[in-house]
Design a protein that fits this description.
Shape of chain A: globular
Structural class of chain A: alpha/beta
CATH superfamily of one domain in chain A: P-loop containing nucleotide triphosphate hydrolases
Bound molecules: adenosine-5'-diphosphate, magnesium ion
CATH class of the largest domain in chain B: Mainly Alpha
Oligomer: heterodimer
Order of helices and strands of chain B: HHHHHHHHHHHH
CATH topology of the largest domain in chain B: MetI-like fold
Distance between the termini of chain B: 13 Å
Shape of chain B: flat
Number of helices of chain B: 12
CATH architecture of the largest domain in chain B: Orthogonal Bundle
Structural class of chain B: mainly alpha
Strand content of chain A: 15-25%
Distance between the termini of chain A: 32 Å
Largest interface: A-B, 40 and 39 residues
Strand order of the largest sheet of chain A: 6-7-8-3-9-10
Helix content of chain B: over 70%
Radius of gyration of chain A: 18 Å
Order of helices and strands of chain A: EEEHEEEHHHEHEHEEHH
CATH topology of one domain in chain A: Rossmann fold
Chain lengths: 262, 295
């Protein structure tokens, strides 16, 4: 995917502030965030728990309205729930009663996509994520990592312009997580999808992102933007032993203080 | 919950995935023989207990330790059932009819109420007090009123069955509909789902396991509702026969009648269980299933 410099940003957030008003207290979840994501970019957002990362993604998806500021997706202002996106959550959020393929095809059914085309695309994604052989397995028969792969396939089925991922691998063990990180890097390169991924793992943020946005504790604001000048194709062993990785990780750790984990 | 074999499959699964070649899912449905064994295993304990109770009854009544007008012998009860089979069948049919109609109406009405309550705060505020009121008022106390209003026919019995069976359906339905993963609802919104699509494809199937628990309670209560209605005013049905037998000190008929009432409840309960297994196989298999991989 070639990115022309004049193309509208995939995601454009300007002066975004979100306040939640409950009975007695007022929470400022997101404070004056401005961020632009170009098409094809992989932006990771790292920050401590409760700093407003999930809220930020929900704003991009049009599921939460900001208190002030403007949001636009693919050049159009966001006013309600957006259909041009794919969403992956920390929990796979699969339908217990559907097998792998049918879970992925939920996306097609609700959107009214062409059945045959959607089925073909689902099979492609199943192959891409190594789920071949498990097409009919029910979610409870799958490991956590495989469930997340299904959620990823479902989010990619309709070829969204932007993929939003909210701590997608946060509940997985370290090994599975590394493996899925490597797979996600490959899928991003192969599909050219714009990805906005939230995490509280510094290693994950640096490994995946072409750019890392570091957020402060609540009220969440962006304290630094780090361009990760590593090649697009990332190999776990190589990246981890790269001096630049250490430098980025140390910088982010310094910004986040002791609150963040590895 | 991790035993030796489970951790073994973790290693195998990781190795297979590392090779980029996941092992295909081995889905082994229970073999007919193992199913039979399992069924037998589940049955022998209650069967044994029932046998002991039956033997006690037999001994107590046959030896004459208790007079027959209080406790008839099993043989007498059986004889009554054979002699009066046409009469008993007719009355069983009446009670079964009231129960089934009442039960079906209770499920439909309960489901609609549950949907209204789960979807709308206003409806919740309006309906919950009424539902609760209908539940706490003693059904036996309003039965005479219903007879006055609706006569001696089937209507008051069906209404009582509905009133008594409706509550568990509402409560379980609301709990089920509320248990939907909010992230799934968010997800459906980004797919542009209509409220009907979200209901049909996500919220309703998700609520089914909860709902069926309430439906099982409801079916047993519906029998109670119908019989209570017959107690208060009827000239047919098992409740009416019970009063008749009681008045005549016909303990054999009374026992036969009780047996038939229980039979209705058990058979209807079994039908609901089978329906549940058909409607939500994923739930049943989750109870007994073992994961394919553990990592
Ligand atoms: N719907 C809501 N109503 C009230 N407060 C909310 C709501 N959603 C999030 N919050 C609050 O906003 C803050 C940020 O939440 P969130 O975006 O989930 O943080 P993160 O994903 O970074 O952990 C938290 O303090 C949370 O309690
Ligand atoms: Mg979050």
């Amino acid at each position: 995917m070639t990115v022309s410099s004049t193309a509208a940003p995939a995601v454009d957030l300007t002066g975004l502030t979100v306040r939640f008003q409950s009975k007695r207290t007022q929470t400022v979840a997101v404070d004056d965030v401005t961020m632009r994501v170009a098409p094809g970019e992989f932006v990771t957002i790292v920050g401590p728990s409760g700093c407003g990362k999930s809220t930020l993604l929900k704003i991009v998806a049009g599921l939460v309205a900001p208190t002030s500021g403007t949001v636009s997706l693919m050049g159009r202002p966001v006013t309600g729930a957006q259909k041009e996106i794919g969403y992956v959550f920390q929990r796979a959020a699969l339908l217990d009663w559907r097998g792998v393929r049918k879970n992925i095809l939920l996306q097609a059914e609700i959107r009214g996509m062409d059945r045959r085309q959607a089925a073909r695309r689902a099979d492609e994604l199943i192959g891409l994520t190594g789920l071949t052989g498990f097409e009919d397995a029910l979610p409870h028969e799958l490991s956590g990592g495989m469930q997340q792969r299904v959620a990823l396939c479902r989010a990619l089925l309709h070829q969204p312009s932007v993929l939003l991922m909210d701590e997608p691998f946060g509940a997985l063990d370290a090994l599975t997580r590394e493996q899925l990180n490597a797979e996600l890097n490959r899928i991003w390169r192969e599909t050219g999808t714009t990805i906005l991924l939230v995490t509280h793992s510094i290693a994950e943020a640096v490994f995946l992102g072409t750019r890392v946005e570091v957020m402060s504790p609540r009220p969440g604001r962006i304290v630094r933007t780090i361009d990760v000048d590593l090649p697009a194709e990332r190999d776990y062993a190589k990246v981890m032993s790269d001096q630049r990785f250490d430098r980025f990780a140390t910088e982010i750790r310094g910004l986040l203080g002791a609150g963040a984990n590895h | 919950m991790h035993d030796g074999s489970a951790s073994g499959s973790t290693v195998g699964g990781a190795a297979a995935r590392a090779a980029g070649q996941p092992t295909p899912a081995l889905r082994t449905p229970a073999q007919p023989l193992t199913r039979l064994v399992r069924f037998g295993d589940a049955l022998w304990r209650p069967a044994l207990l029932l046998g002991i109770v039956f033997a006690g009854w037999w001994a107590l009544s046959e030896t004459g330790a208790v007079p027959h007008y209080l406790v008839p012998t099993p043989a007498q009860v059986w004889q009554t059932m054979v002699d009066k089979r046409a009469f008993l069948w007719l009355n069983t049919y009446v009670t079964l009819y009231e129960t089934v109609i009442g039960f079906v109406l209770a499920v439909l009405l309960g489901l609609v109420t549950a949907v209204l309550i789960a979807y709308s705060r206003t409806m919740e505020r309006a309906l919950y007090p009424i539902v609760l009121f209908a539940q706490v008022i003693p059904k036996i106390a309003i039965a005479p009123l219903l007879i006055v209003w609706f006569g001696f026919g089937l209507a008051p019995k069906i209404i009582l069955a509905v009133l008594i069976a409706f509550f568990p359906v509402v409560i379980s339905g609301v709990a089920g509909l509320r248990s939907t993963d909010p992230e799934l609802v968010d997800l459906s919104r980004t797919m542009g789902a209509s409220p009907w699509q979200t209901f049909r494809k996500i919220r309703f199937p998700n609520a089914l396991p909860h709902l069926m628990a309430g439906v099982k309670v409801a079916v047993t209560l519906a029998v109670v509702g119908a019989v209570v209605g017959e107690f208060v005013g009827a000239n047919e049905g098992l409740g009416y026969v019970l009063l008749l037998a009681n008045g005549n000190l016909d303990s054999a008929l009374l026992f036969a009648d009780l047996f038939l009432m229980s039979l209705i409840g058990i058979v209807l309960f079994a039908i609901v269980e089978v329906t549940e297994a058909v409607l939500i196989p994923w739930h049943a298999s989750r109870r007994s299933g073992t994961p394919l991989t553990t990592s």
